[in-house]
Design a protein that fits this description.
- It is a single chain.
- The chain is an all-alpha fold and about 80 residues long.
- InterPro entries: MrpA_C/MbhD.
Length: about 80
Amino acid sequence: MIEIAVMIIAILGAILTIMQRDLLKAAILTGITGASVAFLFQFLLAPDVALTQAVVGAAIVPVFLALAVYKTQRMDE
């Protein structure tokens, strides 16, 4: 039952990420999906995959996306 709730959280996190107009918020919200998938892997007794997903999906990818958005500049007219 809890795995269904975690899957719903992951799906809602992905939908919220897609719906964001601000790229920095979207970059930060990618961590929700990564963390919930990592928790799902841990719940399904795959701790090595869960640890990798937690490091990559919940920490590295959102940080790199946020840095990329922060470092780029938009040309306003």
